[in-house]
Specification:
single chain, about 230 residues, mainly alpha, 2 domains
Length: about 230
C-alpha cells in the first residue's frame, strides 16, 4: 500500500464532518490565524477573538457558510485602524487581554503586531471583506504577490500560519500543516513528513475519501486534540 493509501485507511477512523459555523469577519480570521500559533486554541485563541468582537460591537462573530458573507461585516481597515490607534501593547493588554508574542522570546514582536501587519497587507491587496478574498484567491498572480508580502510578517515560520489564514477565510482546499497534523502523519507513516509533503498527502487523501482537505485537516486536529487530552 502506498503512503496515500495508508493515510486514507487511517483517516477512515476519524470523524469527518462538513464545515460548521466559522468567523464571519476578516478581522476575526486574522486574529485566529495569528494567535492560534503555539497556543491552546479553546483556552486562549477563541476567547481572544470573542473579546475583540465584543469590544468592536460585532454582534454576529460566527456564521454558517451558506449565510456568508454577512451584510454587516466589519471592514478589515477598521480592525487595522483599531490596532494603529491604540498601539500593539495597549491593544494586546486592554482589548484582547492576550499579550502573546510571535516567538517564545520576551523580545519577540507581539502577536498583535503581526495581526496588524496581516491586516494592513491584506487591505493593500484589496481585501476589505470575505467576498474580496474569493476574488484574490481566483487570481494566482495577485495571490502570489499577497503571499509574498504576508510571509514577511513576524512569526511566518514554515508557512502554516498563512495556509491557516486562507482556510479561515474560506478556502477549503488548504490545510494547516502544524504540529498536530505532522505528528498524526508521523504515527501513520512511521516517518517524519515535511510541511510540503503533508500538504500533498492530505490533499490527495482527501480526494480519495471524497472530502475536502479542510475536512480531513480538521478531523485530524480534533483527533489529536482529544488524544492529547487523555
Amino acid at each position: 500500500m502506498d503512503e496515500i493509501g495508508r493515510v486514507v485507511v487511517a483517516a477512515e477512523h476519524l470523524a469527518l464532518k462538513p464545515r460548521g459555523p466559522r468567523w464571519a469577519h476578516t478581522s476575526l480570521c486574522v486574529l485566529d490565524a495569528v494567535f492560534s500559533i503555539n497556543a491552546h486554541y479553546e483556552r486562549h485563541t477563541v476567547p481572544t477573538c470573542h473579546r475583540y468582537a465584543a469590544w468592536a460591537g460585532i454582534s454576529g462573530p460566527l456564521s454558517g457558510s451558506a449565510q456568508l458573507p454577512v451584510t454587516d461585516e466589519q471592514p478589515l481597515q477598521s480592525f487595522a485602524t483599531h490596532i494603529q490607534t491604540h498601539g500593539e501593547a495597549a491593544f494586546s493588554s486592554e482589548i484582547l487581554q492576550n499579550r502573546q508574542r510571535t516567538r517564545a522570546n520576551r523580545d519577540a514582536p507581539l502577536k498583535a503586531e503581526a495581526a496588524r501587519g496581516y491586516a494592513e497587507i491584506l487591505v493593500s491587496h484589496g481585501i476589505a471583506t470575505l467576498a474580496d478574498v474569493n476574488v484574490l484567491l481566483a487570481d494566482l498572480d495577485k495571490l502570489k504577490a499577497a503571499e509574498h508580502d504576508l510571509s514577511m510578517v513576524a512569526g511566518h515560520g514554515s508557512g502554516a500560519r498563512l495556509a491557516y489564514l486562507w482556510m479561515l477565510l474560506g478556502d477549503d482546499s488548504r490545510i494547516k500543516p502544524d504540529r498536530m497534523v505532522l505528528r498524526w502523519l508521523q504515527a501513520v507513516l512511521h516517518r517524519t513528513a515535511t510541511t510540503s509533503e503533508a500538504i500533498r498527502l492530505i490533499a490527495e487523501a482527501a480526494a480519495r475519501l471524497g472530502c475536502t482537505p479542510w475536512e480531513l485537516d480538521h478531523a485530524i486536529w480534533q483527533h489529536q486534540r482529544s488524544f492529547r487530552a487523555r
